[in-house]
Amino acid sequence: MNKSDLIEVLAEEAGLHIRSTEFVVEEVFNAMTEALVQGEGVEIRGFGSFIVRKYDSYTGRNPKTGKNISVSPKKLPFFKVGKELRERVIDKVGQGVK
């Protein structure tokens, strides 16, 4: 499912216009993004949480040349699945549904 699919499903389920639903979805994603940019976490109970993880610098290797390169420190978003979502997915996979 991509963002367009999500908007269509929400509009249909809630009986809303596509444009209104698109606005709401965009605002939710913007609020989540801004929270992560500010260094805050985002927790959606039953679904999971998004945090920003800090990674130290390290020495890596260029796969083409084999030369060592220095990789600078960085911050990247990380998603941790919630217990309810994990259990629902495990239950479905356990029943042979993909």
Structure description:
Helices cover 45% and strands 28% of the residues. The strands form 2 sheets. The protein has a 3-stranded antiparallel sheet. The longest helix is centred in the first third of the chain and has 20 residues, at 18-37. The protein folds into 2 domains: 1-40; 48-98, IHF-like DNA-binding proteins (HU Protein, Chain A), CATH 4.10.520.10. The mean pLDDT is 93. It has 98 residues and is α+β, with helices and mostly antiparallel strands.
Number of strands: 5
CATH class designation of the largest domain: Few Secondary Structures
Count of discrete alpha- or pi-helical segments spanning 4 or more residues: 3
List segments where confidence is low: pLDDT < 50 over at least 5 consecutive residues.
Answer: none
SSE run = HHEEEEEH
How do the strands of the widest beta sheet line up side by side?
Answer: 1-2-5
Number of domains: 2
Secondary structure class reads alpha+beta
Described by strand count, sense and barrel closure, the largest sheet is: 3 strands, antiparallel
